[in-house]
Amino acid sequence: WNVLLSFSGLVALIQLLFLPFFPESPPYLLLHKGDKAGCLKAMKQLWGEGNYHTEFDDLMKEKAITKGTKIMNVLEVLRDPSVYPQLCTMLLLILSLQLCGLKIFQTANLQDSTIPYVSLGVSISELISVIFCSSIIDRFGRRILLCGGYVLMALILVLLETSLLLSDQFLWMRYCSVILIFLFIIAYGIGP
Asked: What is the pTM of this model?
């Protein structure tokens, strides 16, 4: 497990070493820094030689639309009372997702030998949700994915509570609880 966990650190180190050799994002250069020449240069560097005037014109239109909008840093966002409901919702979702797995694994009375496999399953569930969501978000849109994700999460939580209540009577219900946790993570990744 030490090797498996350190692998993500190795990948991050490789990314950190090669990151300075990549150009900035063209939208960032144009919209935030106002560097038109740098934007065109980055487009050519990223996408090869070609005529990118349509993409550049689209970025210029976006810049004109967002011209009056102030870009806020993290502290400014945290001080803005108009975003408190969204921040509270996000914080509650993140905290509940982090804390629910631990209690459920304790309640399900899983053997210590199966915990590494459950952890691996959680990671695989997150990967599946990222791949699945990125492939369907353009087709269905964010609103449907959000609403569908919340409905699926609610249904899965009802089934999960039922399986936890029955886990003392039926030993196989413990594994149903673990599968439902995986499904919950996938529904969370696809929706919210």
From this structure: 0.48
Tokens of 85: 């409901």
Q: Where are the domains of the chain?
A: 1-67, 74-190
Q: What is the pLDDT along the chain (192 residues), one digit of tens a residue?
A: 567 667 777 877 888 888 888 888 888 888 778 888 888 888 888 888 877 778 888 888 887 777 767 767 778 878 888 888 888 887 776 666 555 555 566 666 667 677 677 777 777 777 777 777 777 777 777 778 778 888 888 898 889 888 888 877 887 887 888 888 888 888 887 777
Evaluated on CA atoms 179, 185, 190, 191, the torsion sign reads positive
The whole-angstrom separation of Cα 39 and Cα 1 is 43
Amino acid letter, 153 = M
Q: Could you give the CA distance from residue 186 to residue 189 in angstroms, rounded to a whole number?
A: 5
Hey, what long-range contacts does 55-61 have (CB within 8 A, 24 or more apart)? 55/26, 56/30, 59/26, 59/27, 59/30, 59/31, 60/30
Residues 6+ apart with CB under 8 A from 192: 93, 146, 149, 150, 153
In a 13 Å sphere around the CA of 20, the CA atoms on its Cβ side amount to 2
